[in-house]
TrEMBL record:
Topology relative to the membrane: Multi-pass membrane protein
Pfam families linked to this entry: TerC (PF03741)
PANTHER family hit by this protein: MEMBRANE BOUND PREDICTED REDOX MODULATOR, SLL1022 PROTEIN
Record keyword Nucleotidyltransferase present: no
Protein name in the entry: Membrane protein TerC, possibly involved in tellurium resistance
């Protein structure tokens, strides 16, 4: 296949990877808020940089990745594969973290906005980022394998996607931090992603288009509310 023939699959894969990578950016941004300001960029860059290394490494182990789709055991009518178990574990972890953060923000009020330096260390948060990186990376690689069969296309898509995520991570993080209502919305988004990962691990796949459309609509409503409420406050 010529370069021209590979261009369309490459662009399509990059676009898909960027959409899937939004989950990762939101998760890292919310965790970074627990650190002092001077360490937040470091966590984002380390988290996304290690995500790229992990995905490139997994591509090198492509034959092993493909075996993760094979059934390991069956419970009732549900077949469990390596991929399914990883998605289940990642989904449950994401459900736990997002639920805990929503409780933290909703119940502790304004104090929840302050960096939690006594309970959260850079190392602990980076480990949590790596756990989700592993889940999203394996899902991403299997998706890529289903779309293209050329390794260079997959490698290029991974590098370009992480580059875009690195550039976009700070503006997204700053926006979420500045507007608490969007932080709750982002946590709800992660909650839905966690539920979808669990469902996919149990072979009840929820079309991602439904998820992203509903969250985009919720984001639009919140954005309109932000623009209409703030001018009223300023007039008062």
């Amino acid at each position: 296949m010529s370069f021209t023939d590979s261009l369309v699959p490459l662009i399509t894969l990059i676009a898909l990877e960027i959409i899937l990578g939004i989950d990762n950016i939101i998760f890292i941004s919310i965790l970074a808020d627990k650190l002092p300001v001077e360490q937040r960029d470091k966590l984002r860059y380390w988290g996304l940089g290690l995500a790229m290394v992990m995905r490139l490494g997994l591509l090198a182990l492509l034959s092993w990745i493909l075996k993760l789709d094979q059934t390991l055991f069956t419970l009732g009518t549900i077949d469990f594969s390596g991929k399914g178990l990883i998605l289940l574990a990642g989904g449950l972890f994401l459900l736990y973290k997002s639920t805990k953060e929503i409780y933290h923000k909703a119940e502790l009020g304004d104090d929840a906005n302050a960096p939690d330096t006594t309970k959260a260390t850079f190392r602990d948060l980076l480990i949590q980022v790596l756990i989700l990186d592993m889940v999203f990376s394996i899902d991403s690689i299997i998706t890529a394998v289903g779309m293209v069969d050329q390794l260079w296309v997959m490698y290029t898509a991974v590098v370009v996607t992480v580059g875009v995520m690195l550039v976009a991570s700070k503006p997204i993080a700053s926006f979420i931090t500045k507007h608490p209502s969007f932080k709750i919305l982002a946590l709800c988004f992660l909650l839905i992603i966690g539920m979808s990962l669990v469902a996919e691990g149990l072979h009840f796949a929820i079309p991602k288009g439904y998820i992203y459309f509903s969250m985009a609509f919720a984001f639009l409503v919140d954005f309109i509310q932000l623009k209409t409420v703030h001018p009223v406050k300023e007039k008062k």
